[in-house]
Automatic annotation (TrEMBL):
It comes from Lactuca virosa. Keywords: Transferase. SUPFAM superfamilies: UDP-Glycosyltransferase/glycogen phosphorylase. PANTHER family: GLUCOSYL/GLUCURONOSYL TRANSFERASES, UDP-GLYCOSYLTRANSFERASE SUPERFAMILY PROTEIN-RELATED. Belongs to the UDP-glycosyltransferase family. It holds the Pfam family UDPGT. GO terms for molecular function: quercetin 3-O-glucosyltransferase activity; quercetin 7-O-glucosyltransferase activity. InterPro entries: UDP_glucos_trans. This is UDP-glycosyltransferase. It comes from the Eukaryota.
Length: 398
């Protein structure tokens, strides 16, 4: 843009971590900042006197960008794509490591017990966080240290979701926190998918009864073994309910796609089930036919399910997923955690609990309440909306 004499332009430079679950929220944040009512993009242009960078927004995992920002005398804001509930537990990683909590195995009597320092999680949840406790602890320590040196942190969550104990996460940080999610609710589904989404599946969903379909997806990174794949297939077919199953190429170890499924399985399923490589997930969750979401509890998937009021079956793999799943099942009570992994009998029981039992109806009621709270938080005067207004003012003050 040009004025009479000077070329005036200020930019916000964003650095996402190059993984689906991190790229998507960063691009969503970019479009929120560009198109928010306050129209930050326009204000930055009006406000600027020279060609310059207003600030950097970088993924929390790019902790080393704080040194770059300091060297260039730029403000750095941090985007945390994972959940605030897992950030709460991250505070305990050093204790877990010192006390040997990471080494507690299935055979140990404590495996199923609650962790004394964090009673809302179990030792078995800690065991799932990482196969490399020292490396993970060092990474998180660096992330936390460099985040506290930044100008502020942006969370893809909403205040009403969390228990009062999560508040401490925001209060204890010596920098401003902006909790302005869920990002994907600000505008329609973004086109940030790295894999092509099979949109034909929406036509099949249109032919299904309301709340009748089990939607299954384990996100962009998780892997399962061939025998776990078989257990999932058997669990689904034994339930005898319609399903839409995302089998990402590469999901199953040593297999291209679904070639290890016996012909008999496909015959038995017939038109009752569909398998796709990648789905338009937000549209699937918003579809009236979707009855539950069997998920790995990546934070984006968890938020997307809450936003559409769809109860969950939880099969977490690593990182923040086990903590998210524990909150979904035990604290918010909006899903069932498959405590014993992928086994056909447990799967069938969990699916029936959510899809057919009174317990499932109660979960649906609770998650519908959360959905209403999401919508309120995004309206003018709601907590996320207020946080966005504060963030825009803050960036303009740089
Ligand atoms: C990873 C981590 O595992 C997660 O815990 C962390 O918070 C972010 O990075 P990922 O496995 O990518 O997450 O899962 P998730 O955070 O749920 O993100 C997956 C995204 O892919 C979602 O936005 C979902 O809508 C999208 N998706 C998934 C599709 O568009 N189609 C699909 O078929 C499956």
């Amino acid at each position: 843009r040009s004025t009479h004499q000077t070329e005036t332009r200020r930019r916000i430079v964003l650095f996402p971590l190059p993984f689906q679950g991190h790229i998507t929220p960063m691009l969503q944040l970019a479009s929120i900042l560009q198109f928010s009512r306050e129209c930050l993009a326009g204000l930055l242009l009006e406000d600027s006197i020279e060609d310059s960078v207003a600030c950097l927004i970088t993924d929390a995992a790019f902790y080393f960008t704080q040194a770059v920002a300091d060297a260039l005398k730029l403000h750095r804001l941090v985007l945390r794509t994972g959940s605030p509930v897992s950030a709460l537990v991250n505070g305990g990683l050093t204790i877990f490591s010192e006390k040997g909590y990471f080494n507690i195995k299935k055979e140990d009597p404590d495996y199923e017990a609650s962790v004394p320092e964090y009673p809302f999680i179990k030792f078995k949840d800690i065991a799932k966080i990482t196969p490399n406790p020292h490396g993970f602890r060092d990474l998180i320590t660096n992330i936390v240290r460099q985040t506290t040196l930044s100008s502020g942190i942006i969370w893809n969550s909403f205040k009403e979701l969390e228990e009062p104990k999560v508040e401490t996460i925001y209060q204890e940080l010596p920098i401003p926190s902006f909790i302005l999610g869920p990002f994907h609710k600000y505008s329609s589904a973004s086109s940030s998918s790295l894999i092509e989404q099979d949109r034909n599946i929406l036509g099949w969903l249109d032919t299904q009864a309301p709340k009748s379909v089990i939607y299954v997806s384990f996100g962009s990174l998780a892997h399962i073994t061939k025998s776990e794949f078989e257990e999932v297939a058997n669990g689904l077919v034994n339930t005898d309910l319609p399903f839409l199953w995302v089998v990402r190429p590469g999901l199953i170890a040593d297999t291209e796609w679904v070639e290890s499924l016996p012909e008999m399985f496909l015959e038995r399923v017939g038109d009752k089930g569909r398998i796709v490589k990648w789905s338009p997930q937000q549209d699937v969750l918003a579809h009236p036919a979707t009855g539950c979401f069997w998920t790995h509890n990546g934070w984006n998937s968890t938020m997307e399910s809450i936003c559409e009021g769809v109860p969950m079956i939880c099969s977490p793999y690593f990182s923040d997923q086990p903590i998210n799943a524990r909150f979904v099942s035990d604290i918010w009570k909006i899903g069932v955690l498959l405590e014993d992994g992928l086994q056909r009998v447990g799967i069938e029981m969990a699916l029936r609990r959510v899809m057919m039992d009174k317990e499932g109806e109660e979960m649906r009621e609770r998650i519908s309440c959360l959905k209403d709270k999401v919508n309120l938080s995004l309206k003018e005067g709601g907590s996320s909306h207020r946080s966005l207004v504060c963030l825009v003012k803050y960036i303009l003050s740089f």
